[in-house]
Design goal:
- The protein is mainly alpha-helical and about 300 residues long.
- The chain is built from 14 helices and three strands.
- It has a three-stranded antiparallel β-sheet with strand order 1-2-3, with no helix packed on it.
- Strand 1 and strand 2 form a beta hairpin.
- Helix 6 runs antiparallel to helix 8 and helix 6 packs across helix 10.
- The termini are far apart.
């Protein structure tokens, strides 16, 4: 993308900082680059000559144009907003702007969306899907579905898994999350059983020297796109009308766990969130459950029985 000259050097330095100091994944760096490239080109088109000329109104207008003219979905706009905030925080910290114009930006309420979640009943239906009649890779798909839900893995975390990352004896899996941070996550008994069955089949498929836990028919590491396709296939096969995608397993894992445990800190650790505010979005999904507990237990809310 052709970045206007006054912005080019600050953007290059910012992306270098993210790559070296923050150790962000290449896909995340690409997202920052695209989002900020859009912003800086848009600012220049509307007469903003450099970082010091950017005001809060310019940033707000850019976000409105993304929504109104480009018809971006709320999740995409929120991602753009996050990129803008981090970029201008960097510029402010390095003296490239006198006052951070992004500090007053707020996420518009109508753009906020709660993550999708499958009900426990729908999840059970989906996890019951793979069976031998669907070909030799059904064991792989069964193991992937069970593991995503059992351990709340991101798609990239799943596809990056190697054979040595699963400890069946300890019932745990070691995953590398965002920022190259490792964490150990428990694996449920259904997932362990599915993984054991898949590992017996894997030896007949994997190419020599291939370390990946999940492999394709060609014997090489399974791609993220392939996982997405298999999840979509099984959801449709089971008659689930809701759009199902890999990250939905992570949302469902977090929501169902929070409903049962009410341990926000514990869920934060299992998900690998560095900030608990990221995990708190699941408390909104759990509100109805908490309201029911309140109605049943609080002395001033509990419905009295005739004998009381």
């Amino acid at each position: 993308m052709d970045i206007p000259c006054p912005f080019a050097q600050p953007l290059r330095e910012f992306l270098a900082y993210l790559r070296v100091e923050a150790a962000l994944a290449p896909a995340t760096l690409d997202a920052y680059s695209r989002d900020l490239g859009d912003l800086l080109a848009d600012l220049r088109r509307h007469g903003v000559d450099g970082p010091k000329a950017v005001g809060p109104e310019h940033l707000a207008q850019h976000l409105r144009r993304l929504h109104r003219d480009r018809k971006l979905q709320p999740a995409s706009i929120i991602r753009h907003l996050a990129s803008i905030r981090v970029f201008f925080r960097y510029l402010s910290a390095n003296g490239l702007v006198e006052d951070n114009p992004a500090r007053l930006l707020e996420t518009p309420m109508r753009w906020k969306r709660l993550p999708g979640v499958l009900s426990p009943k729908k999840m059970r239906t989906l996890l019951a899907a793979p069976s031998p009649q669907h070909g030799r890779l059904w064991l792989r798909d069964k193991a992937m579905l069970e593991l995503m839900y059992s351990s709340g893995l991101r798609l990239a975390e799943l596809t990056d898994l190697n054979l040595g990352d699963v400890d069946s004896a300890d019932a745990t899996v070691r995953v590398t999350g965002k920022g190259n941070k490792d964490r150990i996550v428990p694996v449920g008994r259904f997932a362990l059983k599915a993984l054991a069955a898949w590992l017996k089949e894997r030896v007949t498929l994997a190419a020599a020297g291939e370390a990946a836990l999940f492999v394709s028919k060609q014997g090489t590491r399974l791609s993220a796109r392939s996982v997405q396709a298999r999840v979509d296939y099984w959801a449709k096969k089971q008659g689930i009308s809701t759009k199902v995608y890999p990250h939905l397993f992570r949302h469902s894992f977090a929501t169902h766990l929070l409903e049962s445990s009410h341990d926000l800190r514990g869920v934060q650790e299992l998900l690998g969130h560095s900030n608990i505010s990221t995990t708190q979005i699941y408390t909104h999904l759990d509100f109805q459950h908490l309201a029911q507990i309140y109605d049943q237990t609080h002395p001033r809310a509990r419905i009295k029985k005739p004998s009381e």
